[in-house]
Amino acid sequence: MQIDRPLAQSPARYLAEHRPDTPILFFAPAVLQETARRFRAEIDGLVTYAVKANDRPEVLNNLVAAGISAFDVASPAEMAAVRAADPRAVLHYNNPVRSEAEVQAGIALGVASWSVDDPAELQKLDAVPREAEVAVRFALPVAGAAYDFGSKFGATPELAARLLRRVAQMGFVPALCFHPGTQCHDPAAWVHYVETAAAIAEAAGVRIARLNIGGGFAADRGFEAPDHKAVFAAVAQARDTAFGEARPDLLCEPGRAMVASSCVIAARIKALRNGANTVFLNDGIYGGLTELRDIGLSRLVSVVSPDGVLRHGAAEPRIVFGPTCDSLDRLPDGLALPEDAEVGDYVLFAGMGAYSIATNTGFNGYGLRQIEMVSALE
Ligand SMILES: *Cc1c(COP(=O)(O)O)cnc(C)c1O
C-alpha cells in the first residue's frame, strides 16, 4: 500500500517528538497484516473480516493487502467502505434486519451472502438473484463470551430448520451461521453450535454448502492467552463428526481478534487529584475507551513520560475519568497505573483496535480523531 511519509517507529517515539494534547490511535499495519495471514493459515476455510470492529480505510486497505477478499458488512455505508478499499470485495450482508431500501442497496452492490433469522426478513429477499447464498442464523443460550453480540439475533433451532427448508425451496444456496458472543475463549461454545447446525440441517432435510462460525474469537487482553488454533481444531473435528458425508465448507468472520492487537490508544493525563488517586485523561468512555465500560479493564496498560520513557513505579489502582463534563465518563474502577505517573504523561492502552474508534463520539468536543501509523507498537 501507499505510504506518503515515513512511519513513526513507535508510539513512544511519536509522543516524545510531537507531545500531542489530544488522544491518538496508533495503528501498526504490519501487525494487522500478520494477524490476517495467521488467521488465513490457521482455519481450513474462508476468513472474512467483520467491518464493524474498525471500518477505517487504513485498516481495510491493509486487510486487502494481506489477502482478505470477503467482508462481513451490516449496512450500505459499510459496503461502500469495503468497496472503496477493494472494488471486487465479496460482501456478506449479515445484519439480519434490513429495510426494503437496504435490501435494494445490497442487490445493487451484488451481495454474495445474506443472513436471515426470521420468515418476514426472508420474504424481503425475494428479489435477490438466486445464485446468492442465504445463511440462516440461529442462536443458543450463550456460554463463554465476555458479552453478547449473539442474543440480539438468531432463530431457535426449530425455526432455523423451517427457514433453512424455505431458503432451499426458494432456490438460494443454503447455509447456516451463528455468533457465539464476543471475546469467547471456550472452544466448547463453537462445538455446541456446530453440532446444533448439523441437527438443524438434518431436521430440514437440506445439505448446507457452508457453515459460518461467526466472530467472537478472543483478543489478548493480558489475562488468559487466546488460542484460536484450539477453536479451529475443535470446530473442524465437530464439523467432520456431526456432518459426516455432508460436511460444509467453513468460514469465519473475526472482528475483534483481527484488529485489536494492531492498535494502541494514547491518552494524556490532564490532572491528578486526591493524592493522585483520581486521574483525569483526555480520552474516556465517549471517545476510544467506550468498550472498557462493557468488557472491563485490560492489563495491557502502561505509562510513558512526555519524553517517551516508560514509568516503572509500583502499580496503584486509581479512579479514572475521561475529559467530558459527565460523571458517567469514568472507566471501571481500579485501573492500575505506576505511582510515578505525572500530569502530562501518556497512558498507553494496547490491544485497542476493535470497537474503539468505531464507537467514538465527539461529545463535549472531545473524542478520538487522529490515527497515526507506526512501524511497530513497542
Ligand atoms: C460483530 C460481528 C462479528 C465480529 O465479532 P467479534 O466478536 O468482534 O469477532 C462477526 N459476525 C457478525 C455477524 C457480527 O455481528
From TrEMBL:
Family (UniProt): Belongs to the Orn/Lys/Arg decarboxylase class-II family.
Xref: InterPro entries: Ala_racemase/Decarboxylase_C, De-COase2_N, De-COase2_pyr-phos_BS, Orn/DAP/Arg_de-COase, Orn_de-COase, PLP-binding_barrel
Segments forming domain Orn/DAP/Arg decarboxylase 2 N-terminal: 34-260
Cofactor: pyridoxal 5'-phosphate
Catalytic activity: L-ornithine + H(+) = putrescine + CO2
EC number: 4.1.1.17
Alphabetical list of PROSITE patterns matching this protein: ODR_DC_2_1
Taxonomic lineage from the root: Bacteria, Pseudomonadati, Pseudomonadota, Alphaproteobacteria, Rhodobacterales
The protein's name: ornithine decarboxylase
Domain of life: Bacteria
